[in-house]
């Protein structure tokens, strides 16, 4: 079969189902959609710190010019990894080029044919990709349902190593996992706990170290994943855990071994944003207050829409891909950047408008959003 003909068929099917994805150029509408929770990607202060520090690196090159094991490593890389390990209270941290890469690189390398993974049914696509590549027995438990998880743990005990994989704050639902409960279950059933902290990085815990820190379970995790494309306002990710885990990944993780390392500017942005988070920043207070305001408004919307999430990620449920997309376009036409999340990215019937709050949003913007939703016919 002609490959062009086949891909045309797939694309047409997507269009018929209102699922065709297209790239759009950012229109600079009111931001209810980016992951820049604290506005740090646009912080003039951090930018200045990065620029100043950049001058310290005598051997300037645009790219890192190789993978870490060849030419790509540097003193700066080691410094940033030390900073990450300290901030996240782990023995070691290993940088990956993105969160997607970190999840795939970690999960697919770690597990062996006789292992079992127990995972929350709503985990991110990158975790799925890592699990698919691992090719082993996968058991999903109902979202944040630890009775269901424990039943699976009791019913499936025939494995070499067991793993529980979940997110600390869910990227689409906006709700949080009960990390203490998960840590207790992992200890009780002698399985290894892996937590993806992508959306918690920079927002929760001391110095933005995450929800595992807030829950006091950092040392109960076998591995944790922190990403820098969200509240950190940059790019890349780290797996944190034992020194031995780091050595293992350096030796066996193909995503790490066979990919060009991050460049200097990227590493400096991560470094200076982590430094910045060590101060008592106002952005967190603004976000916290907006979150309270949003919840108050959402309560009044209950009769028309179901609103999910605990903030700063919310889902306004609009079942049906087309209806959901139409409502997103209506809001965009009124200057609000709100995106539709369609099935199969989320389960059918739970299509939603994903609303993300930022420290730089205003109560007036939230008012506008809710007025438009109430008026929408
Ligand atoms: C829970 C979770 N893990 C991993 C990722 C991937 O991170 P990155 O964007 O750095 O590839 C995302 C991104 O949306 C995410 O939400």
Provide a descriptive summary of the structure in words.
The protein has 377 residues and is an alpha/beta fold. It folds into two domains: 18-38 and 281-375, Alpha-Beta Complex (Aspartate Aminotransferase, domain 1); 45-276, Aspartate Aminotransferase, domain 2, CATH 3.40.640. 43% of the residues lie in helices and 15% in strands. The protein contains 15 helices and 13 strands. The chain has helices spanning 3-16, 44-54, 68-72, 75-87, 99-110, 125-134, 146-155, 179-188, 211-215, 243-252, 254-257, 264-276, 282-301, 321-333, 363-375; strands spanning 30-31, 92-96, 116-120, 137-141, 162-167, 192-196, 223-227, 237-241, 306-308, 313-317, 336-337, 339-341, 352-356. The strands form three sheets. It has a seven-stranded mixed β-sheet with strand order 2-8-7-6-5-3-4, with helices on both faces. Helix 2 (44-54) crosses helix 12 (264-276) and helix 13 (282-301) packs parallel to helix 15. It is globular and about 60 Å long. The model has no long low-confidence stretch (mean pLDDT 94). Pyridoxal-5'-phosphate (PLP) is lined by residues 98-100, 103, 124, 126, 167, 171, 196, 198-199, 227, 229, 237.
List keywords for this structure.
binds pyridoxal-5'-phosphate; Aspartate Aminotransferase, domain 2; 2 domains; Aspartate Aminotransferase, domain 1; alpha/beta; seven-stranded mixed β-sheet; 15% strand; 377 residues
The spatial strand order of the largest sheet comes to 2-8-7-6-5-3-4
CATH superfamily of the largest domain: Type I PLP-dependent aspartate aminotransferase-like (Major domain)
CATH architecture label of the largest domain: 3-Layer(aba) Sandwich
Write out the distinct hetero groups bound to the structure. pyridoxal-5'-phosphate
Strand content: 5-15%
Please count the helical segments.
Answer: 15
Number of beta-strand segments:
13
CATH domain topology of the largest domain: Aspartate Aminotransferase, domain 2
Say what oligomer this is: single chain
Structural class: alpha/beta
SSE pattern, N- to C-terminal: HEHHHEHEHEHEHEHEEHHHHEEHEEEH
Report the principal-axis shape.
Answer: globular
Distance between the termini: 46 Å
């Amino acid at each position: 079969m002609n490959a062009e003909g086949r891909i045309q068929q797939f694309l047409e099917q997507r269009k018929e189902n209102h699922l065709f994805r297209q790239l759009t150029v950012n229109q600079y509408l009111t931001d209810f959609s980016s992951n820049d929770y604290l506005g740090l990607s646009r912080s003039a202060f951090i930018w200045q710190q990065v620029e100043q520090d950049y001058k310290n690196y005598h051997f300037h090159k645009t790219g890192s010019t190789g993978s870490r094991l060849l030419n790509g490593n540097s003193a700066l890389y080691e410094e940033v990894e030390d900073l990450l390990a300290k901030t996240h209270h782990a023995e070691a941290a290993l940088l990956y080029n993105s969160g997607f890469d970190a999840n795939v690189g970690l999960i697919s390398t770690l597990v062996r044919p006789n292992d079992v993974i127990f995972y929350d049914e709503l985990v991110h696509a990158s975790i799925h990709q890592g699990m698919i590549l691992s090719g082993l027995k996968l058991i999903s438990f109902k979202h944040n349902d630890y009775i269901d998880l424990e039943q699976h743990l009791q019913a499936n005990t025939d494995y070499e190593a067991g793993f529980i994989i979940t997110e600390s704050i869910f990227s689409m639902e906006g709700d949080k996992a009960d990390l203490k409960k998960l840590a207790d279950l992992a200890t009780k059933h002698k399985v290894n706990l892996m937590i993806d902290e992508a959306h918690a990085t920079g927002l929760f815990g001391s110095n933005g170290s995450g929800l595992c820190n807030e829950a006091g379970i950092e040392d109960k995790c076998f591995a944790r994943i922190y990403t820098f494309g969200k509240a950190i306002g940059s790019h890349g990710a780290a797996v944190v855990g034992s020194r031995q885990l780091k050595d293992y990944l350096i030796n066996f993780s193909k995503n790490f071994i066979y990919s060009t390392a991050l460049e200097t500017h990227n590493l400096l942005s991560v470094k200076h944003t982590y430094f910045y988070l060590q101060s008592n920043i106002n952005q967190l207070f603004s976000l916290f207050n907006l979150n309270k305001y949003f919840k108050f408004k959402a309560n009044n919307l209950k009769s028309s829409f179901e609103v999910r999430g605990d903030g700063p990620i919310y889902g306004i449920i609009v079942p049906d891909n087309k209806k959901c997309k139409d409502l997103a376009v209506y809001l965009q036409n009124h200057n609000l950047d709100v995106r539709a999340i369609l099935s199969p990215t989320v389960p059918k019937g739970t299509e939603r408008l994903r609303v993300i709050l930022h420290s730089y949003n205003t109560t007036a913007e939230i008012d506008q959003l809710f007025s438009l939703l109430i008026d929408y016919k």
